[in-house]
Amino acid sequence: MASSSPSDPNAAELDALRRPLRGRRLLSWTLLLAALATLALVPWWLSNSAAERQASAAAGDALRMTAVSAEDIQAHRTAHAWDRVWDAGPLDSAHSALSLDCRACHSEPFARVRDEDCTACHLTVTTHGGPSPPIAGDPAPRCATCHREHQGAQGLALQNIAQSGPACVDCHAELAARKPELGLLDVRDFGDAHPEFAVRVAGDGGALRKLRLDAEPAIEPTGLKFPHDVHLKAGIDGPEGPQTLACGSCHRATEDALGFEPVRFETDCESCHALTLETSLARRSVPHGSVDDALSMIREFYSFAANNTDPRRAEAVPGAVQRPGATDAADARFVGRPGDALALARIEATDLFEKRACAVCHTVTRVAENGPPGSPGGDLPQYRIDPVAPVHPWMPGARFSHAAHVQTECSACHAAATSTDASEVLMPGIAGCRDCHAGAVAEPTQVRSDCGLCHDYHPAHAALQEADVLAGRPVPTEAQ
Ligand code: HEC
Ligand code: HEC
Ligand code: HEC
Ligand code: HEC
Ligand code: HEC
Ligand code: HEC
Ligand code: HEC
Ligand code: HEC
Ligand code: HEC
Ligand code: HEC
Questions:
Q1: 111 — pLDDT class (breaks 50, 70, 90)
Q2: Which of 117, 306, 332, 384 has the fewest Cβ atoms nearer than 10 Å?
């Protein structure tokens, strides 16, 4: 090492540092104590004053939606004016009213934010994975691990859709081995380590069951006959001649545009599949949806016709087109036959239920029993209509928004145009999503997709209970 010479600038500096401090040490102490006093002791003392306690309670009350007066707020502002010196960055807009009440979240000084501070206000936040802790001895992460405050006005909302990585994958990367009884597969990243989707389909007795799209044929017995392909052909017969249906003819978006209104006979089928009484009477149809109402209407119609002179003849439209199962032969039953009302009603009921109308769309079974006592249709043949599977969630474990995909053709995700039977499940698998959705790292032609883009973490209680029913677990009651 070169020894220092008097002309060496480093040596001169060393020398200066070795000289006595004189007033500098005192100055440092004075400044340090002043800083402590202004930045810590004064705010601390003020925050502990009685005025503050009252005021901060009021700020909390404001967010808890209890009454707060203007004086409360003013007292609060004054008492907390000094807190700002600790400002760690702007709070989320949802919490901005707490910018003067740091202790709402930091109830203990010099400690990490406690979950109890959050749940004091967020009483209804549910535990992920069910009412009981997901994995015994494996506590859920702290609220503040996933919800970082002081990140700006939209901070929390932006974080929610970007929840990913350790916050979720710490548990989900090895869940299959650690909790095999859940039947869940491991997940690490949407891009290349996320299982094929599962859908819920109606099973025996109406309960939903989980069906993995890659594990078994995607079939759901729906109870309804409906071939998409027949109806999506160009130029099919409509009431006013050939017409071409689009998906939107039957699937009308809900108000929030996330999904679709249920398909209904009255709005979506009746214009072409009218339940006309006799094919020649275009304006007389039976009501839809109840076997007994339909039979009663038939019975009453023929009783009336038998006792009156042909009010119907005027309405008859010769050769009126009757879609599916239509017979163009003029209706010999009705025209010009004297009225054995019961016999005519029987013939008509059998025809309507078993051939012309109901059986086109439903599985119709003739049953031996009599109709409801006292009902006009009670003495006609009786029928059972197999239940139609009610509208149900397909992928309750994830969030999906049709509104976010309006630019994409329906057919990119749903193979409806080639579907020959309503029992075919038309839900998309994961491969199509990956054309546009990358994992936690964006790709040049794909959007970045963290877990939070598609999944909630705090499911609503209703969804939880449904999940419990699906998994065959006991559903907790209110009291539990
Ligand atoms: C809505 C709750 C909430 C309120 C109100 C709040 N904070 Fe925080 N603060 C947090 C969370 C969450 C963290 C993250 C710390 C952790 O992981 O425990 C944090 C962290 C901090 C940190 C540590 C630095 C950092 O960014 O991690 C400081 C300093 C801080 N807050 C000061 C304040 C001050 C001063 C106020 C009042 C103006 C305040 N906080 C109000 C929730 C809050
Ligand atoms: C004094 C009451 C209060 C406290 C304490 C509080 N919050 Fe909130 N928080 C609210 C209110 C009010 C809203 C807005 C209404 C809502 O979304 O529930 C809100 C909204 C939120 C949101 C939704 C934000 C958005 O834009 O989607 C999150 C996430 C949140 N709080 C997390 C936390 C966490 C984590 C803590 C603890 C560090 C906490 N809160 C402490 C009252 C509070
Ligand atoms: C593993 C990450 C994670 C943890 C831990 C977590 N959250 Fe969340 N939180 C989320 C995600 C993701 C969302 C957005 C989706 C949703 O609503 O479930 C969210 C949404 C919220 C919301 C706004 C929506 C709502 O349900 O009202 C609040 C409030 C909230 N969390 C509070 C809390 C509180 C309080 C805790 C601690 C008891 C907590 N969170 C723990 C990830 C987490
Ligand atoms: C502490 C461990 C833990 C963390 C952290 C965690 N999970 Fe889970 N998660 C579970 C467990 C356990 C279940 C199974 C719950 C059940 O079915 O009873 C589950 C269930 C799920 C399911 C439902 C699967 C299904 O179809 O039944 C989804 C989706 C999910 N988690 C996504 C997430 C996301 C997104 C995050 C991060 C924001 C996350 N999880 C963080 C443990 C965790
Ligand atoms: C004439 C009316 C009609 C038209 C037009 C129509 N659908 Fe449907 N769609 C239905 C009916 C009825 C059901 C319910 C069938 C059932 O119970 O499974 C259905 C069910 C569906 C389902 C959910 C059922 C499943 O099993 O996955 C999807 C997805 C769907 N249609 C997509 C489409 C698309 C995409 C188009 C356009 C290419 C289209 N539909 C055109 C009547 C229609
Ligand atoms: C625009 C008119 C139109 C609408 C609306 C319509 N259909 Fe059809 N449907 C037809 C025509 C035409 C046929 C006969 C097609 C053929 O045989 O080639 C038919 C045939 C059928 C068949 C028998 C298919 C077969 O393979 O024999 C069923 C079942 C059916 N439709 C159900 C429905 C249901 C359910 C709805 C309402 C969700 C509906 N249709 C809406 C015109 C329509
Ligand atoms: C063109 C097809 C079509 C014809 C013809 C038809 N239905 Fe339906 N039916 C439907 C559709 C679609 C639904 C489910 C949506 C709704 O309720 O509107 C349904 C639902 C029903 C239901 C309710 C089933 C349940 O599980 O809740 C009954 C009952 C019913 N129909 C009876 C009849 C009877 C009786 C006839 C004959 C008089 C008939 N339907 C003719 C299409 C048809
Ligand atoms: C682009 C949307 C999307 C993204 C991003 C995504 N998922 Fe999923 N995930 C789904 C859909 C859709 C399902 C099927 C939902 C169902 O079963 O109800 C699913 C199913 C799951 C399941 C159930 C698995 C099983 O065995 O049935 C878990 C757990 C899960 N996801 C966790 C995650 C985690 C953790 C991440 C982040 C690493 C993530 N997901 C990212 C859409 C997504
Ligand atoms: C990017 C893929 C994608 C596109 C594009 C898409 N869907 Fe879907 N669709 C889905 C997924 C995923 C679900 C399951 C959502 C769930 O149940 O959580 C679904 C569910 C449905 C359902 C059954 C659920 C319900 O709300 O009744 C119908 C019907 C449907 N889609 C029709 C359509 C029609 C019509 C279009 C075109 C206007 C369309 N979809 C475009 C992915 C898509
Ligand atoms: C043609 C490209 C494309 C396809 C295919 C596609 N997505 Fe998307 N999706 C997008 C884009 C672009 C966004 C907007 C991303 C954003 O806002 O960060 C988006 C957004 C989403 C969102 C967030 C919606 C919101 O507003 O909350 C979900 C959830 C989602 N996609 C799920 C899916 C699923 C599940 C599939 C497969 C069934 C799918 N996507 C297929 C392009 C696509």
A1: confident
A2: 332
Beta pairing partners, 384 = 365
Tell me which of 95, 119, 143 is where a domain ends: 119
Kindly give the distance from the C-alpha atom of residue 85 to the centroid of ligand 1, in angstroms, as a whole number.
13
DSSP state of 333: T
- Longest pairwise C-alpha distance within the chain: 137
Query: Which tens digit of pLDDT belongs to each residue from 63-72?
Result: 554 445 566 6
- Taking the centre of ligand 5 as the mean of its atom positions, its distance from the CA of residue 465, in whole angstroms, is 28
| 305 part of a folded domain | yes
Cβ of 91 less than 6 Å from ligand 1: yes
Output the six-digit token pair for 369. 């029993």
Residue nearest to atom 20 of ligand 8 (CA): 197
Q: Which of 360, 385, 410 is the last residue of a domain?
A: 385
- Is any ligand 9 atom within 6 A of the Cβ of residue 191? no
3-state secondary structure of 443: strand
Residue 98 lies in a domain: yes
User: What is the spatial distance between Cα 405 and Cα 407, in angstroms, rounded to a whole number?
Assistant: 5
- Ramachandran area for residue 150 (φ above 0: left; ψ -120 to 50: alpha; else beta): left
> Domain span at residue 348?
291-385
> In degrees to the nearest 10, what's the CA dihedral of 319, 321, 326, 331?
-30
Tell whether 93 is covered by a domain.
yes
User: Which pTM value belongs to this model?
Assistant: 0.85
**Token output for 292:** 């007994």
Give the Å distance between the CA of 459 and the centre of ligand 2. 16
- Closest ligand (CA of 391): 9
pLDDT in tens, 45-92: 665 555 555 555 555 555 554 445 566 656 655 656 665 666 678 888
Q: Which atom of ligand 1 is nearest to the CA of 104?
A: 5
Helix ranges, 121-186 (H):
143-146, 155-161, 165-172, 175-178
Query: Which of 464, 451, 468, 475 is CA-nearest to residue 182?
Result: 468
Count each helix (H run) and each strand (E run) in the chain, helices first: 20, 6
CA distances from 268 to 251, 271, 273, 318, 321 (A): 9, 7, 9, 26, 18
Q: How many domains does the chain have?
A: 2
Cβ–Cβ under 8 Å, residues 257 and 403: yes
Residue that has been written with the tokens 């004053």 in this structure: 49
Ligand nearest to the CA of 156: 2
CA distance 398 to 395: 6
Residue 307 lies in a domain: yes
